[in-house]
Amino acid sequence: MNNPLLSPPSTPYSTAAFDAIVPAHFLPAIKQSIALANQEIAEIKNQALPTFENTVAALDRSGKALGVISSIFFNLNAAETSDEIQKLAREISPLLTSHANDILLDKELFDRVSQVYHCKEKLSLSAEQHTLLQKTYNSFVRNGAMLNAEDALTLRKLDEEIAQLSLKFGENVLAETKRFLHLIHKKEELEGIPPTAVEAAAQLAEERGHAGSWAFTLDYPSYIPVMTYAKDRALRKTMFFAFNTKCAKGDELDNQEIITKLIRLKSERAQLLGFSSHAEFTLQERMAETPEKVQAFLQELLQKAKPKALEEVQEVSLIAKKDRIDELQKWDFAYYSELLKKEKYAFDEEELRPYFSLENVIEGVFKTATKLFGITFKSATAIPVYHQEVTAYEVRDREDKFLAVLYADFFPRKGKRNGAWMTSYRGQYTDEQGDHRPHISIVCNFTKPTPSTPSLLTFSEVTTLFHEFGHALHGMLARGNYESLTGTSVYWDFVELPSQIFENWCYEKECLDLFAKHYQSQEPIPSELISKIKRAANFQQGYMTLRQLSFGLLDMAYHSVDPSSLTDIKAFESQVLKNTEVLPALAETMVSTSFSHIFQGGYAAGYYSYKWAEVLDADAFELFQEKGVFNLETALSFEKNILSAGGSEHPSILYARFRGREPKQDALLKRSGLLPS
Asked: What is the pLDDT of residues 362-402, one digit of tens each?
């Protein structure tokens, strides 16, 4: 078989030949690239005296083909999956897990790395090389290189089972999300829902064979308008329970048993490697360092946020009482919060939509990046894409040199999981052939265009796009020698800094003036609306902070618990979240069973990093505010010390180099309105 993954046809910048790739290509390509990687490892072991270059650097350079092919496969599994791809994932995942273990449990290979590591003081290594050596050595030790043969075999089995269960968890969440469809046949039941969302619901109903009705799903662009604007309380309740009981119904898609198994297996793995819990294992290589520090951090923020959150809920309750709702429920909160926001700030997110057509917002993030970092973007129709809705861009630096390929994928569809993320198809690194530039992708689920209007984003969706684009900048601006240290290959509680800081520009008039124009009249967004955005920025920050803290606390609880005590997922979740509940708890609903960040994604024992990085981003953006939000000197420093530096040094060193000191919480507390008055 002529396999475009193994013998790629000519494409611009050696991008993936999506127009030639079919699912049947993946398994043979993975197997052959594993064999090639094994050959590269054998060559490393056949070298004479181990050196940094012939062992540590060579190991970082090995497996490039496998890395690219597996990235293509798993990115498609997230953004354009199918039954065939999911079946392949269950076959391919164990192969990759086994291959990784073959390397990390290879005693001969570890011995070579160890020899270099233990004479590191005698070597003239750069800071980047020293980081790579430390990271490589730690990777072996933390993944079982010192285990005996019996324990190494146990580790392999644990890793394979964890990988398979994580895949199954995600498949269940996707299946549950996609099988739900709520049809409305009476127009009066749609009262309050914005016309754009109503039109989208009619379009979806027609696509699904229910012309004349309106269809709503659990995809965010469909779900959020109902919860925020639908006057029909029964409709809000129906949608809320569908969304918050995903994979918790005791049927074939139920994830409770998977969670129990995952927690047990991760705990066993951690203890096998000498750690008391998965949280302790994970946090050894995080800025936060220990579970105790994370708990202290979360609890300190909880003490500051909860009183504010309780005040905010009371405010919303008073609005709901006007509709004779004596006890505010969770399916009421977004709706009455929106009414309160209108009352307090004369602010309605729907009022902003006409100024945020997706096309203009994309232009806005590009212009913002150009003003800050000198990079430019050009649509590249010659680059193959994996779906007709995906756009590829050629990205160039301030000297007009090729910098990166950027893929952008913005709308929900059947084979795409919910949410928004940035990912990479190829990382950046340098070798004797030169600087290999990255291929980056941002994937979102925004409001689709309708026959009468383009895709018009909520302000929340605008900040989401800026967030993911911040991650993309981290990838595109990478400048380093070793792929495992470039781009977003940084400590997990540092990786959200570039994304979260970039959101701040959405609130700045200088930025909004670049792109916020009415999609029909092309009139710029009025200064009055910008003022409303800024005034409403702190709206319900206590409640939102508490919500994020609840996820962080739940994550840490799962990955610190003695698994033998985890017999009832709902009871465990309720116990952990009771201190963050400010609305009546509901026996039927669960967060855990669709908490993909920690049970499928990479955030296990790491969800706290969103709040941790908020401290960094608020503190860092304060410098931009002092110097000017488009101040070139500050932007160049951020690019050099944060975005381009990747994981070349410890994040605390990189941050202090940019900021001139360690981060402080004050800027976040001030921005969130959580400082005592």
From this structure: 999 999 999 999 999 999 999 999 999 999 999 999 999 99
Residue 19 lies in a domain: yes
| Residue 601 confidence (pLDDT) above 90 | no
Cα–Cα distance, 453 to 519 (Å, whole number): 9
**Max Cα distance, the chain (Å):** 81
DSSP code of residue 164: H
**281 three-state secondary structure:** helix
Each residue of 233-261: b (16+ CB within 10 Å) or e?
A: eebbebbbebbbbbbbeeeebbbbebbbb
Overall size of the chain counted in residues? 677
Q: Give 422's strand partners.
A: 442
Could you give the CA distance from residue 643 to residue 637 in angstroms, rounded to a whole number?
9
Q: Is 5 contained in some domain?
A: no
Mean pLDDT over 483-507 rounds to 97
Q: What is the CATH number of the domain that holds 113?
A: 1.20.1050.40
Number of domains in the chain: 2
The helix/strand/coil state of 435 is strand
CB 288 within 8 Å of CB 294: yes
First to last CA, the chain: 70
- Measured between alpha carbons, how far is 364 from 463 in angstroms, rounded to an integer? 12
HSE toward the beta carbon, residue 424, CA cutoff 13 A: 22
Whether the pLDDT of residue 442 is over 80: the answer is yes
d(CA 371, CA 355): 21
Looking at the fold, whether 76 and 195 belong to one and the same domain comes out as: no
Kindly state whether residue 118 falls inside one of the protein's structural domains.
yes
Q: Domain residues for 205?
A: 180-244
How confident is the model over 588-611, as a mean pLDDT? 96
Query: What secondary structure does DSSP assign to 505-545, as a single string?
Result: GGG-HHHHHHH-B-TTT-PBPPHHHHHHHHHGGGTTHHHHH
Average pLDDT over residues 631-650: 98
100 and 225: one domain?
A: no
Q: Are strands 402-409 and 439-443 parallel, antiparallel or unpaired?
A: parallel
Q: Is residue 333 part of a domain?
A: no
Q: Quickly list DSSP for 411-433.
A: S--TTS-SS-EEEEEE--EEETT
The whole-angstrom separation of Cα 498 and Cα 491 is 13
The CA distances from residue 579 to 309, 576, 586, 596, in Å, are 12, 7, 15, 23
Phi/psi for 393 (5° steps) reads -125, 145
Residues 653-657: contacts with CB under 8 Å, at least 24 apart: 655/494, 655/497, 655/616, 655/620
- Tell me the catalytic residues: 468
Is residue 549 packed enough to be buried (19+ CB in 10 Å), middle (13-18) or exposed (0-12)?
Answer: buried
